[in-house]
Sequence to fold (135 residues):
Amino acid sequence: MDYKTVLTTCPYCGCGCNFYLEVLDGKILAPIPCKTSPTNEGKLCIKGWNAHEFIQSPNRLTGPLVRKNGELVAVSWDEALDYTVSRLKEIKDSHGGDSIAFFSSAKVTNEENYLLQKFARAGIGTNSVDHCARL
Fold:
């Protein structure tokens, strides 16, 4: 039996709460709030208590998919990123930067949200950036 705890950051909002994941034989069992975290001080909201459940879901995507001939096909990360870059460039060149919009997630850190909006504004040239937590 291989038991360990792994310190991580909750994926549900930008607060940055920390918890330990209890792992037994490679399977995540439950979160344990981190009492030394200055953000959550040993407490978790309902989302944090259930944050681990999606990790081992059989419905979870584990790699990139690209639509080919009307069907989603598993491809390498390099192929998926090359495809994404070429399509974004093609759309921007044809219709301008404001034809592209970005929608971010509360399941990433504030730093990742910052990078997305910076990429949208400086890289693509659009101010069309939204976030699910705004609702």
Remarks:
- Helices lie at 46-49, 77-95, 110-124.
- The domain at 3-49 is CATH 2.20.25.90 (N-terminal domain of TfIIb).
- The mean pLDDT is 92.
